[in-house]
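ok here's the first one, seq then struct tokens
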Amino acid sequence: MAQAEAARCLSGLLNGIAQSVYYGSGDVTEELLRSEFYPEVSRDEFRALHEKMRGLLKSIAAADMDHAQLEAFLTAQTRKQGGGGVSADQAAALTRFWKSQRGRVRESLLAGSRWEPSLRGLTWRVDLQTAASRGDAAPRGPVALMELELGRTGQDSEFVCLEFDEAQVNQALRTMADVRRSIDGLARGSEGV
């Protein structure tokens, strides 16, 4: 019975950490988890266990480990000497937790990495104005019209219309080329790390 109770407590701790770290539940505190699942354990011992499990969950979630990766990771953790590793029971609890919560944690991480408002759609066209349509003696150059559909999660879209003349289009293209070169440079720099 003691082993089943230990598994229940560790499962509760892992779920509590997920609530706090990934699901935005600010009322799930370290002290609440200790009083709920490990009241007989000293604060220092619980803090060490809490930080270990929190660190392991963050590593697992950051890598979005599949079953094989998780198994290899936890096998390496169980082989660690000293207090840095995990027991076989802890590894089993982590496996059960990740199997049931991987999708939800992943969605939480993705939602947290999105910029809001986000671009939902973009349409554009180029208009040529003739002298007769404007009443001018000389026609103006081409005009690029762009409509951006922007929105926040769970809200209706907003639309923004932009008008560019030829010089503004060329400037925007130069700026995008500069951004691309910067990103390529950063990507090449990180490959050597």
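and now the second one, same deal
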Amino acid sequence: MLGPLLGSGYLLLRDAVSTPRSYLTDSALGLGDAAPRAVPQDALIAVGSTVVDGGLLVKAILLTALWLAGWGAACLARDLLRVSLGPQLVAATVAIWNPYVAERLLQGHWSLLTGYAALPWIALLATRLRARSATAGRAGGLGAWAGPAGFLAAAGLTPTGSLLAGLVALLLVGKRNLPVMAALWILSAAPWLTATALSGAGAEPSDPAGIAAFAARAEPWLGTLGSLAGLGGIWNSTAVPGSRTTFFALVATVLLLALVATGVRAVLGAGTDSESRSGAAAHNLDRTGVRPDDTAEPGSVPDADVESRSGTAAHDPDHTIVPPNDTAGRGSVPDGGSSRDPRHDEARVARRRLVWLAVAAIVLPALGATGWGLSAGEFLVTRVPGAGLLRDTQKFVALAVPAYVLCAAAGCRVVGRWISTMVVDGASAASPRARTGGAAVLFLAILFLTLPDLAWGVGGALRPVHYPAGWQRVAGAVDAPGDVAVLPGGMFRKFRYSGSAPVLDPAPRMLKRDVLQTGELPVRGGVVSGEGERARKVENLLLQGGSANRLAELGVGWVLVEGGTPGPMGESKTTLAQLNPVYADRDVQLYRVPGEIAAHDAAAANRRVSGAAHLLWAALLAGGFLTAAIHSVTRRSVPGEAERESHPDHDNAD
């Protein structure tokens, strides 16, 4: 998927901008005129690029995020369904190889995908905390909370990712753990919550035109609801793989939903009778967890794989929700009286909640694209401060993915049983590996078929670019006070070296001083207004040929002209003639505004408060993952600890 991007160069595609070096400007801390939508993302890259090239850092984060998304989906399926390797691979593929990921890659939302990647992990860890509270009366110590803290912070790289992760965590963690989880979420969201409070920009009402502009979009032959159910439907019709622009979008969506549908009954635990029989048969288990016969019927959740038959499941270092050596059988999730461990019930509750969350994540954005839904959205953004964060409703389809991966994994198990029943005289004649292996290969082939052009950088669209040398010279020259104004007007560019897709202006992340941006977004033939009031005044002044003195009064010390890109220039030549040229080539021209420049920097106290919030977030991110890793290594190094913790009567303090 990321093959072309891993070459030399920088990610510069629509909203994605990476540069060799970026800086801790007021905007990077969320203290500029615009709403803090890229907080703490920009601050992280600014600090990290002092050590590692910024382009390499963004690529590493994106690659790690997608890898973690697949790994987390596999672990979620393993823990909540007790499936073997084949279905786990299916779960991982559903999480990575889908239209949501493809469209967000094409839109340049690499940081949103870090929040997306955290969702299966947060679902898994929150369910574990809930299960431990149910069995031991407490969730565990610091080690049990370290993982959720780290993943909440990772998801908090953007405000939307933070909202997604917080919703999943609070939904699954249970009432006893709700206060602690809520506190962790607030800490993980500290940078953008603090920036919103200090700058005030995020608390301003948003342009109601953004509701219709960013509403979910219907893909060919699907309608809005079908597009969202297929994990597609992004508002930008140009940020879509080619296969989703034809009749094949319908075929691909039907195939994906068919795979998911095969496992819905199993994930919901609806097969009460068959599961009860499975639980009754499990009473014949010996203490090692070996089942004498695989009696579960098609549609039930248990997966007695090769490991359980060999007895190795008695030592399960992953400490899953369902202990392999309890009397209900490895991985069985019986309903009612057949469950002897409350953790069975907690796993079932988590699965059901994820399914209903998926339904809401698909239906509500679809309703939001209707006439009355648009009216309701416009009412919210004009009267509720900060509601503009919700205008891109298709983002929230990410909440459906944990349920999709569980249903696909469970469905793989179900189809494996169907295949063995139809092909072999007696399902028991086929080994568990043979039952699921063939089904897994079939599922994987279908998943790849549904989106063939996701391969190799989404059909080659995701490729690195190289900035002309003039950008580095300009970046080195901007070293005196004063903000930077840019020409042509607008925030998006089409450079000769960046391809045909519009790209967000790289200047704000390339230069040491704040670059004024209006926040106006051209969408679907219209313009959605932004929050940058001072930037709007400066842009109008330049396009009208205003005086250099007025620029200085507005705090502008530099004017950057980006050549070779379309956009309004107006009467700016009149203004530029009053400025001092600093550097010029075919790509960029830099001018210095003469005279005394009025200060418009954020207050020092605000920078300190925002900096402290970012440090808190960074400590939660690094400390959470480091503590979780140390705790895991320490626990597993104690002889017999894994076996004791997987016993139903022992507190599983993973």
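notes on #2: Strands lie at 12-13, 16-17, 483-487, 492-493, 503-504, 521-523, 526-528, 556-562, 580-584, 588-592. Residues 271-339, 642-654 have pLDDT under 50 and may be disordered.
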